Amino acid sequence: MCDRLERLGLVARRRSESDARSVEISLTAAGEDLLDRVNERRRNEVIQVLTTMQQADAELTIRALAAFSEAAHEVADGWAMSAI
Predict the structure, then answer these.
(1) Rounded distance, CA 44 to CA 46, Å?
(2) N-to-C CA span, the chain
(3) Measured between alpha carbons, how far is 5 from 27 in angstroms, rounded to an integer?
(4) Residue 55 clears pLDDT 90, i.e. is over it
(5) Phi/psi zone of residue 53: left (φ > 0), alpha (ψ -120 to 50 degrees), beta?
(6) Res 74 pLDDT > 80
């Protein structure tokens, strides 16, 4: 997958300075632009759905999505849930 993304100019690879066995992958400017456009489209689609909902339901959904987002960042930062 990285080969393909690199050929498309969306990511760049370079040898790690701290560990020669590792390769670091980062988004290029084109990759960041694409990610920004995808995120904007997703936000607009969520907003469209929310505007069709009853206000109370939309507010509950927004609160639930905010809580989910906060938890997702905690998971990404190394926090793990033991059970749901």
Answers:
(1) 5
(2) 32
(3) 9
(4) yes
(5) beta
(6) no
User: Which has the closest alpha carbon to 26: 9, 11, 5?
Assistant: 11
CA 55, CA 70: separation in Å to the nearest integer? 23
Angle formed at CA 42 by CA 51 and CA 1, multiple of 5 degrees = 165
Q: Could you write out the DSSP letters of every residue in the chain?
A: -HHHHHHTTSEEEEE-SS-TT-EEEEE-HHHHHHHHHHHHHHHHHHHHHHHHS-HHHHHHHHHHHHHHHHHHHHHHTT---S--
Global pTM value? 0.66
Residue 66 tokens read as 């905010």
Domain of 12, in residue numbers: 2-76
Residue 9, phi-psi category: left (phi > 0), alpha (psi -120 to 50), beta (remainder): left
Q: Is residue 83 part of a domain?
A: no
